[in-house]
Design goal:
Shape: elongated
Structural class: alpha+beta
Radius of gyration: 20 Å
Order of helices and strands: EEHHH
Distance between the termini: 55 Å
Number of helices: 3
Mean pLDDT: 85
Low-confidence stretches: none
Number of strands: 2
Helix content: 55-70%
């Protein structure tokens, strides 16, 4: 089994203990930051709801966002490098 590291994460007003791969820690923490910021945003917009309502709103929002995984970001970077090489080649031909 892979070497998992324990993380204490906070979502809304609850703390959870999870285990993740070390290389995924930054992604998990970034996702948690977005989730908690959205919870605060929904709390401001829709006062008087309970935490479960806010978390449900964030879940719906998050599920409907276009997915951009690490692999997609890597392929975008690769594509940009490839296009830059093509552009340099064209510039040299002119």
């Amino acid at each position: 089994m892979a070497n998992l590291i324990p993380l204490n994460i906070l979502i809304g007003d609850r703390t959870y203990r999870i285990k993740v791969l070390p290389e995924n820690e930054a992604v998990v923490r970034g996702t948690l930051k977005i989730i908690n910021e959205k919870i605060l945003e929904f709390k401001t917009q829709y006062a008087g709801k309970d935490m479960q309502d806010y978390i449900s709103m964030v879940l719906i929002w998050y599920a409907t966002q276009p997915a951009k995984s690490v692999e997609t970001a890597k392929s975008d970077s690769d594509l940009q490098e490839f296009l830059a090489k093509i552009e340099n080649t064209i510039d040299q031909m002119l």
